[in-house]
User: What shape does this take?
Amino acid sequence: MKCIVAGHQAVSAAEFAELALGTPVELWLGVEGESDEERAARLDAARDILADPEYRDLPDELVRLAARVVDENPGLFNVVPLVRPARRRPVRRQVAA
Assistant: This one.
């Protein structure tokens, strides 16, 4: 199945996310081995983007996208549904008067 976003074909999940969000995924997640200086510059750029009125809803969009990816690909993060244990009611013992 082809994933086409804004007229561009995404060939990987990272490329799809970049096309959908309009920003590189690395801007938000960072890259392995980045220096403190590179991290500070990346976070400054991210803050500038979030300050732009065009991107003010971006954090919400990122959360929705992440939730959709986890929901549609549970094996991707080795996610297993948690079963809530049944509530145990305390046993009340009545004493004869």
Q: What stands out?
A: The longest helix spans residues 36-51. The mean pLDDT is 76. The longest strand covers residues 3-5. Strands lie at 3-5, 8-10.
